[in-house]
Amino acid sequence: MTLLKAVRGTRDLLPPETELWNRVEATARRVFARYNFGEIRTPLFEDTQLFARGVGEETDIVSKEMYTWEDRARAQSEKAQSLTLRPENTAGVVRAYIEHKLGETGLLQKLYYIGPQFRRERPQKGRYRQFWQIGAEVIGPPSAGSESPLRDAEVLEMLASLLDELGITGWSLVLNSVGSSSDRPRYIAALREALAPVKDQMSADNQRRAETNPLRVLDSKDPGDEAIIETLPKIADYLDDASKAHFAAVLAALDACGVPYTVNPRLVRGLDYYTRTTFEFTHGELGAQNALLGGGRYDGLSEMLGGPKAPGIGFAMGLDRLILTLQEAERKAAAAQAAVAGVPLLADGFIAPLGEGLNTAALEMAKELRRAGLRIELGDGAFRLKKSFEIGNKLARAIVLLGEDEQRSGILTVKNFATGEQTKIPRGDLAQALKT
Ligand code: HAM
Q1: Mean pLDDT score of the chain
Q2: pLDDT at 423
Q3: Residue 293 CA, closest ligand 1 atom number
């Protein structure tokens, strides 16, 4: 019988690793509470239409990566319904916002979630088919301040604090503005125009996107198309005054609260709902899949799903990737610790008294050499010669043999472990010889 294994791209999380997961989740909950976010739990599967409309038909996620099936709603006879395992949680949160009329409170909804998402991607380090996200969304009617650049800066500052509190150092924040629903059409028209004469030289996927959703050409990973993509117009040149002012205000607020960032005019992100601010936090430790988290504004998403005007901004952090980064940092810290505690630094010399009668003479010699600034290990006259050599080899770069002959003549036998060379050295020259 063939053994059953976890499905490709999925994995079991076992103790003690799960302790780290729990610690990270607890830290996230603590930080979210300080910013007054509440938890939302939406279903793991939703009507396929939610993602098709929300995330966008032409995105990689919807066109290739979703786990979708026809499900009979109640009985055999009933019409089948297309359902999908959630590939992300923003569309589900906005659906719940609309369904439960949360906008009617007139307040901002600040919601966070922690849970699995599903995408049929090619598995590799940091990329799984079932992966976890810690995410949060701030959404509400414009009268509650949901459009304000202050919200963007507040979310980004919260993320910087969360990463700091988790002990993640070395992250970079990259951001961009992809414009509002009014300046996006002008940019897309310009992209179409620029793509028209060159699209035939591009991959089949990009030829199709050039027609159906040109913005998606920008986040294509096809290396053959990169040179053409570089020549395409940049969205920054198509932002209207309001979008430019919004982005400038986000950057100014980040400067004011000391969150470091860089602006990348090519960052459009792979989901269609984004407007204005988009961002990613990356980490060098992660290799190819270096996005620790991504997010942005989605001012039109609620309306795209048939809801009221409800601008919003949010992010999702790849929990699997966060854990990888922390484990790497822990591994490095443990290695650094070992260099000090477990495996001592190599001493300049190991003094080996040949017989217990020479112990005090060896102690005195060690004292002299240490006072001369050398790092010295002292053996024991009870050790056999072989044992002295074995220990000396682990602890020092050279061994100094102190037998009765040596004591009498004042000429010592020194063996350098690295070169294997054995020499006779007068006591007065010993410190100098061991230093080199
Ligand atoms: P996303 O960029 O598709 O955005 O995913 C967010 C994060 O989830 C990524 O930066 C990455 O860390 C992690 N992630 C994505 N796919 C995988 C995978 N296959 N394996 C492991 N980790 C993965 C969203 O999902 C948006 N909903 C974020 C958002 C919230 N925007 C606004 N609000």
Answers
A1: 92
A2: 94
A3: 10
Helix, strand, coil content of the chain in percent (nearest 5) = 45, 20, 35
Residue 215: band (very low, low, confident or very high) from pLDDT cuts 50, 70, 90: confident
pTM: 0.78
pLDDT band at 72 (very low <50, low <70, confident <90, very high): confident
Distance CA(205)–CA(217), nearest Å, equals 9
- Separation CA 27–CA 134 (nearest Å): 11
Q: Of 421, 106, 158, nearest to 295 (Cα)?
A: 158
**How far is Cα 264 from Cα 249, in angstroms, rounded to an integer?**
17
User: At residue 416, what is the residue type?
Assistant: N
Place of tokens 């810290």: 333
Task: Give every CB contact of residue 340 below 8 A, 6+ residues apart in sequence.
Answer: none
End-to-end CA distance of the chain: 65
Closest ligand 1 atom to Cα of 291 = 10
130 exposure class (CB count in 10 Å sphere: 0-12, 13-18, 19+): middle
Contact by Cβ (8 Å): 291, 172 = no
Q: Which of 137, 75, 145 is nearest to 109 (CA)?
A: 137
Where helices occur in 117-237 by DSSP H, the ranges are: 149-166, 184-195, 204-212, 215-218, 226-231
Cβ-based neighbour number of residue 391 at 10 Å: 17
How many A from CA of 88 to the centre of ligand 1?
7
Pocket test for ligand 1, best of 321, 323, 326 (most atoms within 8 A of CB): 321
d(CA 277, CA 243): 9
- Look at residue 38 in the predicted model and tell me its pLDDT: 97
CA-to-CA distance for 173 and 36, rounded, in angstroms?
A: 23
CA distance 426 to 410: 6
Digit-coded pLDDT (tens) for 119-150: 999 999 999 999 999 999 999 999 999 999 99
123 CA closest ligand 1 atom index: 19
119 ligand 1 Cβ < 6 A: yes
Q: Is the CB of 291 under 6 A from ligand 1?
A: yes
Question: Are the CB atoms for 263 and 175 separated by under 8 Å?
Answer: yes
**Spatial CB neighbours of 28, under 8 Å, sequence gap ≥ 6:** 112, 114, 134, 162, 166
Instruction: Determine the Cα–Cα distance for residues 249 and 148; give it in Å rounded to an integer.
Output: 9
Q: Tell me: the pLDDT tens digits for 73-125?
A: 666 667 789 999 999 999 999 999 999 999 999 999 999 999 999 999 999 99
